[in-house]
Amino acid sequence: xxxxxxxxxxxxxxxxxxxxxxxxxxxxxxxxxxxxxxxxxxxxxxxxxxxxxxxxxxxxxxxxxxxxxxxxxxxxxxxxxxxxxxxxxxxxxxxxxxxxxxxxxxxxxxxxxxxxxxxxxxxxxxxxxxxxxxxxxxxxxxxxxxxxxxxxxxxxxxxxxxxxxxxxxxxxxxxxxxxxxxxxxxxxxxxxxxxxxxxxxxxxxxxxxxxxxxxxxxxxxxxxxxxxxxxxxxxxxxxxxxxx
Length: 244
Hints:
Blueprint: H1 2-31, H2 40-79, H3 84-99, H4 106-117, H5 122-133, H6 136-151, H7 155-204, H8 206-209, H9 216-239
């Protein structure tokens, strides 16, 4: 609970910092007036949306990685003669030891122990977890698992195959990110260049760019430029984000 509050506090601080940086830059370079800080509330919520999306993608990537390790552990315990329920509980404990107390699957272990203690079917527990996880890989595995459990399928083969497919997907995603790393760096540099150009003109030729400040036409032009810059920045971010 305390860790969650600390994380939330850090997120709010980062969100506020980004909002102040963006609004301050807009105020200085695009409007040369403190009136540009009026964009602070809007940039605060936009930064919150971007941070939420980034944290969601990081959480899913970590969850899929831990779930892959869980499947490998469960398949090994099944081969050792454990029941499905005991294999999942043992696998979750191994994942917790491997990834630490802040493992994304820690909560699932406590919930599974509690619900299995009242004789609730494993299928219901995994279905609820899959729905909450937001991971397509986990949902697909749970659907196959539930179907096999009803039909008496080979759990070891199913779990091993699922772990192999998730592992292959993670490896492909890692290779794609490696290839896109240079493009992502180029995108960040290109996003800074327009601001550098404005700062250069403002520092070396204030009379040249000064015509765009302090008059309605200039405000309109700079607002349009700021909106186009923001749209290009957002589009550039999305172009270097490829989901497998």
